[in-house]
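README, section 4: Worked example with a bound small molecule

Sections 1 through 3 covered apo chains. Here we extend the same pipeline to holo records, where the ligand is supplied as SMILES alongside the sequence. The molecule in this example is flavin-adenine dinucleotide. Nothing else about the input changes; the structure line simply encodes the ligand pose together with the chain.
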Amino acid sequence: MNIVGAEGGLRVAVIGGGFSGLIFSLKLLEAGVDVTLFEEHSIVGYPPHCTGLVSSRVLGFIGAPAFKSTVSRFDGITLSNASSHVTFRVRGGLFKLERVKLERLMLEEALSKGLKAVMGVIVRRVSPRGVVDYGDSSVFDSIIVADGYHGSIHRSLGIGYFNPPVYGVNVEYDMVTGSRRVTVVFDSSISRGFFSWLVEMDHGVLAGLGARNPKLLARSLRALEERFGLRDRRSAYGGPVITGPPAETLSIGRVHVVGDAGGLNKPLTGGGLYPNSLAASLAKRMILEGVDVNTALSKSLNTVSSMLRKQYKLAKAVLEGGVIERILDLLAGEEVGEAVGSVDYDHHEEIPSLAVKRAFWKTVKIGVKTLVKNPALIPRIALAILP
Ligand SMILES: Cc1cc2nc3c(=O)[nH]c(=O)nc-3n(C[C@H](O)[C@H](O)[C@H](O)COP(=O)(O)OP(=O)(O)OC[C@H]3O[C@@H](n4cnc5c(N)ncnc54)[C@H](O)[C@@H]3O)c2cc1C
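The generated complex, written as structure tokens:
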């Protein structure tokens, strides 16, 4: 066993050294808590799965490791279906992080702040009274379970996220398109019930998609490659994408479930970096204000979980009802290239609602033009709509 780090203070165990375990470790260390991280692998960041797209707000939450692992910046995001596309500015910009590097730098920073890291060790079980069994056993004041969607620890406790995930795959290509943009494609002939994405950067292209049925991934990927002329695959990776709603119960006794294990993800895209950075930062603030660690953790998780629950209804309509595909059809023929409005990348519900507004005004414009050309229609329409 390999244990590194400092001694002293209120003791919190974090199970899992993925993004969520690392961000909670960092924020708790910054609040003066003594943190011990248990990770089954001997390194963090592997196997990679994530696209790594985040807002400037998330960069701010994570701090130096995020700035140092940023590989591209984008001003906007383009939504597309089979026939049309529309571009929105993203307030503060959109950033592509190198995810494996991010987690390595987060671990280094946490170690420099006094983290004890128990690497290459599988935690067998934890108890709501604070016991962590990892071959040896130790008692902690709080336990943060960040063991990911498949993790056996939250599952054995019977709390956390259990809904089936979307299966996501990312492929890196050596080709350079000469553009720098992020396109999200809502086209059910490529990705039914979810969407696909294309991240064009100065040094290469990253493309990916999600599917509820993993058997469809290979065929869908070929369709995406054909549509965008993608070639020269370099590497492929993926994993479960969690689309909510977040788990009903996230805390039991001294144990708190976070990250993909708790369904703390943006419901439209499955993005986990924003909700967990936010929850960890809220917990840090409360602890610094004097709130005890268990209360701070359960309150911050409840706050973020309620926010995600509100986003869930809209996300479900957009993803499952094919709403966005139809809205984009309505927008067909719009001016392309120019951004039509600005959106908050962490509150995705703004994006489809802006598209709806845009489609509404386009319909009104067409209606007015028709009436100007055919004034004889006015009395007929008036008769039809008057009571
Ligand atoms: C294809 C794809 C694209 C994505 N794109 C984005 C994106 O652009 N932006 C975004 O914000 N999010 C994105 N996400 C989501 C994001 O990647 C996840 O929400 C996030 O990585 C989850 O981190 P986690 O720490 O909760 O879980 P994980 O990364 O699964 O980490 C769990 C960790 O716990 C360890 N562990 C498990 N059990 C034990 C045990 N018993 N003992 C010790 N260690 C244990 C595992 O080894 C692992 O290191 C994407 C996800 C996918 C699949």
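What to look for in the output: The CA atoms of residues 267 and 312 lie 5 Å apart. Residues 293-320 form the longest helix (28 residues).

Section 5 describes how to batch many such records.
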